[in-house]
Structures are given as structure tokens and as C-alpha cells.
């Protein structure tokens, strides 16, 4: 059977962000939502990030989740290159506890919004992505309703 086309694009600034982002992938797996994962830094590989972000919508991606730590510009740079909504996940850091990542991500200039979840809020980023898609996709909305029913039981 052919793999379903990914609808969530997950990008992270470093392979070192992968463990903190596992709950995002696990939540999307649990909800049956196909995703793609890319490791690329806006600082270290700007051309790769540019190309990935600019072509995301054409690949069928509906929502982007961008995770990064420290001077976490990745979400904002991705948002500059795509009309898709971007959810940023600030990574907890050893020096400043993730406040550095959070402030870098949340303080976007007017005109280029980036939604931002809590420090290491990978699971919530996944749920929020499905909620966004649910605004015009009843099957996605049902997945979130099912999750809420499960939490309440
Ligand atoms: N914030 C960014 C960006 C970016 O914003 O483009 N690229 C890498 N990083 C972050 O640097 C931290 C340390 O990365 P390394 O472990 O590779 O040195 C990671 O949390 C990564 O997301």
C-alpha cells in the first residue's frame, strides 16, 4: 500500500533536538496523521531550509512544526518562505533553560506570525497542528474530539 502523503512538516535545527521532538511524532502517529521530518538549520544550511519551506505547500504539507533551541530563528525563517502556518517548539537549553529559544521564537515582527507552544511542548505542537487542519477537515477535527474524549474518560 502506498504511504499517505505527509500533511505535517516537522523541521528541527539539529539532530540533537530529536529526543525532545519524539513526543510530537508519537502524537501524530497515535492520531494517524502522516508527517515528514527534516533536520536543517537556518543558520548552518540556509539554502536547504529555504528550499524545504518554499516547496512545502506544493508537497501537500498543511502545517509546519519547527523546533529549535538557543537563538531559535528557524521557525521565523521558515515562516518567511511559506504561506503555511508555522508552530514553533522552543527547545530546552542547558545555559538558559529554553527561555532563550522561547523568546527568539515568540517575538516575531508584525506581519510574520509564528504560533509558539511551551518549552519542549512537542506533543502540544502535534495536537495544535491537527486542530488547525480540523478547521476545514472534519476527519482531522474528529481526531481531536476523540483525543479530548479519551482524556476526559
Ligand atoms: N536555533 C538553531 C538553528 C536555527 O534557528 O536555524 N539551527 C540550529 N539551532 C539550534 O542549536 C541548538 C544546538 O545545536 P547543536 O546540538 O547541533 O550544536 C539546537 O537546539 C538547534 O535547534
From TrEMBL:
Pfam families annotated for this entry? Answer: AIRC
Q: Name one GO molecular function term.
A: 5-(carboxyamino)imidazole ribonucleotide mutase activity
Q: Which UniProt keywords apply?
A: Isomerase, Purine biosynthesis
What SUPFAM superfamilies does UniProt report for this protein, alphabetically?
N5-CAIR mutase (phosphoribosylaminoimidazole carboxylase, PurE)
Classification via Gene3D superfamilies? 3.40.50.1970
Q: What is its EC number?
A: 5.4.99.18
Which pathway is this protein assigned to?
A: Purine metabolism; IMP biosynthesis via de novo pathway; 5-amino-1-(5-phospho-D-ribosyl)imidazole-4-carboxylate from 5-amino-1-(5-phospho-D-ribosyl)imidazole (N5-CAIR route): step 2/2
* Catalysis performed (reactions): 5-carboxyamino-1-(5-phospho-D-ribosyl)imidazole + H(+) = 5-amino-1-(5-phospho-D-ribosyl)imidazole-4-carboxylate
* Domain (PurE): residue spans on this chain: 6-152
Signal sequence interval, chain numbering: none
| Residues binding substrate | 14, 17, 44
- A single BP term in Gene Ontology: 'de novo' IMP biosynthetic process
Q: What class of enzyme is it?
A: isomerase
Primary role: Catalyzes the conversion of N5-carboxyaminoimidazole ribonucleotide (N5-CAIR) to 4-carboxy-5-aminoimidazole ribonucleotide (CAIR).
Regarding protein family, the annotation reads: Belongs to the AIR carboxylase family. Class I subfamily.
What is the protein's name according to its record? N5-carboxyaminoimidazole ribonucleotide mutase
Amino acid at each position: 500500500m502506498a504511504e499517505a502523503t505527509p500533511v505535517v512538516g516537522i523541521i528541527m535545527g539539529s539532530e540533537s533536538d530529536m529526543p525532545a521532538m519524539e513526543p510530537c511524532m508519537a502524537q501524530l502517529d497515535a492520531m494517524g496523521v502522516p508527517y515528514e521530518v527534516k533536520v536543517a538549520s537556518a543558520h548552518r544550511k540556509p539554502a536547504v531550509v529555504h528550499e524545504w519551506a518554499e516547496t512545502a505547500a506544493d508537497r501537500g504539507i498543511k502545517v509546519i512544526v519547527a523546533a529549535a533551541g538557543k537563538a531559535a530563528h528557524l521557525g521565523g525563517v521558515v515562516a518567511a518562505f511559506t504561506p503555511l502556518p508555522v508552530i514553533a517548539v522552543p527547545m530546552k537549553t542547558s545555559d538558559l533553560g529554553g527561555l532563550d529559544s522561547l523568546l527568539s521564537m515568540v517575538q516575531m515582527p508584525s506581519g510574520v506570525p509564528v504560533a509558539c507552544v511551551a518549552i519542549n511542548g512537542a506533543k502540544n505542537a502535534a495536537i495544535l497542528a491537527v486542530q488547525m487542519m480540523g478547521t476545514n477537515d472534519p476527519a482531522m477535527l474528529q481526531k481531536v474530539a476523540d483525543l479530548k474524549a479519551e482524556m476526559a474518560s
